[in-house]
């Protein structure tokens, strides 16, 4: 059951190209991860909501899958990425972030990330970028800068690093992501409202 879940998550997310994806995916196809095609939220909810909820609420399969690099990656994608699509515009979109970040930190401590392809490492690192703690944001910038240094010709690595820097700048300035305020019932400052009016995101 656990390995079946890992396979389903990774095969969906990487279009069946697990492992070799970094060498084969075009820039255009990679962009779909951050600008999901129409209907993808509904599909992910239909296919993975029960799995995501079981992993988050009762840690189903966590002990087993967190023992391997790609098992951990599957858990992180399920908690970090799928939560955002299944529960878009709901506080539940962010509720699994601490769990995903904990898995990421543990994986890096065990050097699991070094056993993955570059495009797999990106999604292992993203929980740092989604955190509202500045120290985590700085760690994200460091990790993505390392990827750029390792793969200087890869345009997507450069783009990912730019996004990491942009996320960190928002946290440095506001101490949180203003676009989450309304969803989480937080009161925005005048400065944050102007940022949002100007099209600020994340």
TrEMBL record:
Pfam families: DUF924. InterPro entries: DUF924, TPR-like_helical_dom_sf. This is DUF924-domain-containing protein.
């Amino acid at each position: 059951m656990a390995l079946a879940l890992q396979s389903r998550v990774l095969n969906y997310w990487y279009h069946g190209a697990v492992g070799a994806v970094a060498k084969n995916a075009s820039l255009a196809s990679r962009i779909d991860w951050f600008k999901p095609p129409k209907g993808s939220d509904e599909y992910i909810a239909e296919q993975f909501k029960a799995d995501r909820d079981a992993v988050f609420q009762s840690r189903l399969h966590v002990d087993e899958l967190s023992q391997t690099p790609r098992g951990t990656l599957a858990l992180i994608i399920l908690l970090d990425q799928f939560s955002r699509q299944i529960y878009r515009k709901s506080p539940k979109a962010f509720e699994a972030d601490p769990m995903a970040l904990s898995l990421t930190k543990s994986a890096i401590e065990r050097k699991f990330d070094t056993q993955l392809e570059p495009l797999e490492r990106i999604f292992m690192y993203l929980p740092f970028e989604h955190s509202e703690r500045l120290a985590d944001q700085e760690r994200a910038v460091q990790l993505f800068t390392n990827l750029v240094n390792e793969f200087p010709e890869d345009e997507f690595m450069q783009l990912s690093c730019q996004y990491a820097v942009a996320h960190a700048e928002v946290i440095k300035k506001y101490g949180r992501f203003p676009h989450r305020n309304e969803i989480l019932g937080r009161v925005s400052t005048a400065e944050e409202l102007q940022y949002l009016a100007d099209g600020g995101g994340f």
